[in-house]
Amino acid sequence: MRPSSMEAYFSTPRPLNFLLALGAGLAVALVWLFIQTRRRGLPLPAVLMLLGLSVVLGGFLSRLEYLLVESPYIEEWPSVFFAPRGIREFGFMGAVAGVLLSVWVTQKVHRLRGLGNAIDLPGLLAVFFARAAEVFVPIGTGPYVD
To answer: Is the pLDDT assigned to residue 135 strictly greater than 90?
Structure first.
């Protein structure tokens, strides 16, 4: 049986299950984020800036953290920065650092206070669902296993 294009890209079987669980969890976290920010009276442009910066900075810092911590070969960094070999090859702490940096930048640009307090529960929900979705990523199934 020929693997789908997603299974050829990721080094784990059935990556769609992981991505669907992750997407559902992130959708719940986003809904809760908009409820929290509306309840606190925070402006929509600030929330959208926070989300955009979180995606950009979180994605960049997660890859950088993975490469600095996990990859001992500096020569391969350019080739694997945008093409992870497996679905687990993302740096979790780098993503968290990107979100925290995004909160700080957004608060400075929009002269706000309390944006970090509004994102705490939705952030915990996103982390919970991201870690729970890893049940679909079995250990020991990558190309390194004979």
So the answer is: no
